Amino acid sequence: MGTLVLFLLAFTWDLALGEPPAVVHPVVWFGKMAGFLDSRYERRSPVIDFTAGLITALTVIFLAFLLSILPFYTHFPLNYLLAVYLLKSSFAIRSLHEHVSRTVTNDLEEKRRAVSMIVSRDTKILDEAHLNSAAIESLAENLNDSVIAPLFYFLLFGLPPGAVVYRAVNTLDAMLGYRNERYEFFGKFSARLDDVLNFIPARLTVLLYLPLGRKKVLEYYKLARFKINSDKPIAVMSAVLRVWLEKPGVYSFPGGEPKNEDIKQALKVYWTVVAEWTLIITILLGGLGGCVHA
Hints:
The chain is 69% helix and 2% strand. It is mainly alpha-helical. It is globular, with a radius of gyration of 19 Å. 43% of the residues are buried. The model is unreliable at 290-294 (pLDDT under 50).
């Protein structure tokens, strides 16, 4: 199947139907396998824990690679359906919008519940402004992780080992890549591999914000020195919205206090960047004349 047709079908699926059911969602499978292997391993020493984490990550990545090459070993029309399904499963445009839009409420407890669905921090201790900040931060970071990056690797490598393998690595980082006693060594390989794979996409995401305010975007990008990648998309979202976004003890970007209206504005910025990226992908794939096959 031509890559442009594959992308347009997957993109249409996402906007029209959203995510596949969890029981048949590859990203859910990756998470369950990582969780299973994690729960069965008892921590021992830094070297052994790192090795066990490495084996866990490689196992999940290998599963992702096997899934990604299934279309090559099936016949028409199943190969077409599998390719579209796997590509669509690697990115999440509509569902990210839906999750963040639920945080736009004046009911503080409902806002806490909605924000807790998209961030790992304890929302019970956050005030309204920090809940709004957390929602916008999640939207900005996941715009990179769930939209820009997987499609970037699809552009480079197609399905194997592109978008699907990237999402496996990103899922591993989300589950194991914590700096705490349990995951400091077990999750280190997953976290560092995710850092490597996101280095270019995070900065590409910044470039996509430039039409929305070049001077301010570049100014805030220079302030993003807290983390290797994840603070970059957050910084430029803060720049465009002109609101402060912060995760206490991790990063902070200046601006006005974020409110519900700022979450709504962030969603408009989100769709603008998605539209830019979609247009770029379509032009690039169209320029190839559909000659590259997934």
